[in-house]
Fold this sequence. Notes:
Elements: H1 3-21, E1 38-40, H2 43-48, E2 55-57, H3 60-73, E3 79-85, E4 89-94, E5 97-110, E6 115-127
Antiparallel strand pairs: 1-2, 3-5, 4-5, 5-6
Amino acid sequence: xELSTWFAVSQLQADYARVVDSGQWSLWPEFFTENCVxxxxxxxxxxxxxxxxxxxxxxxxxxxxxxxGITQTLFHDPYYQRHVISSPIVRRAEDGRxxxxxxxxxxxxxxxxxSTVFNVGRYLDVLV
Length: 128
């Protein structure tokens, strides 16, 4: 994979994290195609080939519904959030799609408390 391709994937992930971490939820769906798949799946299910996922959205419209839920119906103590994303590994490029993988950690800091690890995992992306 060419360096410019790797850099473009890295920049896309940095932009994605910036939008999510800053709470600009209306911009989040714009990272996806109309017929996208956004899946949060436990490692055990993924490794065993089980389809069950914590969250499974299959269109940009569903992502917009999720934004509504996040911004209009959820209540929680306020916090700051930051993603730390590893350098991507572009596994393959074919048919106008890049298949990449990277690790991430999400840290949250409540206004009156210490930073804690909220979530760690792996992005398995198919980029168009």
